[in-house]
Amino acid sequence: MLKLYISPNSICTQKVLITLDEKSLDYEPVVINLFTNEQYDPAYLKLNPKGVVPTLVHDDHVIPESSLICEYLDEVFPEVPLVPVDAYQKTRMRMWSKLIDEQIFEATREISFSAHFRTRMQGMSEEQRQTRFNNVGDPERTARYTEIFEKGTDSHYMLESVADYEKAFKKMEADLGTGGGPWLLGADYSLADINMIPYVGRLEFLNLLDIWLQERPLTRAWWALALERPSTNAAIRAPMADKDWEDMQKYGGQLRGEITRIRDDYLAGLSH
Predict the structure, then answer these.
(1) Which tens digits make up the pLDDT trace of 148-195?
(2) Domain spanning 2-76: CATH superfamily
(3) In b/e form, how buried is each residue of 137-174, taking b as 16+ CB within 10 angstroms?
(4) Architecture of domain 87-270 in CATH?
């Protein structure tokens, strides 16, 4: 029996949902409301001490961390394999997982916060805002959120986020070109693609993706193929409330000029 603790708009959750859908696996979803701090409920913290989603429970086994969950599911349920057998290709897949977990996850979180959640917090009282910051549970993440709340796109964290995406898309275009495509590891769709899809999707839903992809035809073609897979829609767009979709498009679109400026400044700095 598979039980998955999720938040539908969580990008990390979406990676696992895509994997489950690709493998046609049944599971019991348990929704954790991040906005009411259900992730800090003592019962949930026993399963996931970090207080994050998703968390998979398979029989008596508890597996946190989305990248680990996806690999676990592929090994335990090997039908429709998503991890390469070849050692080098498997390493390439894990390099994508590492890049996403160590850089792109934070970059997406910062851009999403600046575009969408910052606006929500501006409508809160000071006491409500401080409660939200205090409940983050990670001093480093609290510091990042606080600065972005106060400075918006002028925060140096936003420059880091834009730069991290620029490097990731540069790598995507290169890998798609040298590997023969149409997927990141070549002919076969894999966890490398699944790991990246929700993060690219978040930029599109924020009306920002084309800022990076205008001159990257291979990555545009990869994204078009990803959108054709039923698992992409089932995991990302279908569970999203229309109001969340509309807000992301609206508030993300308001950042287009600033995000473009930050990227242009970053690229100009590289040329010197």
Answers:
(1) 777 778 888 999 999 999 999 999 999 999 988 899 999 999 999 999
(2) Glutaredoxin (3.40.30.10)
(3) eeeeeeebbebbbeeebebebbbbbbbbbbebbeebbe
(4) Up-down Bundle (1.20)
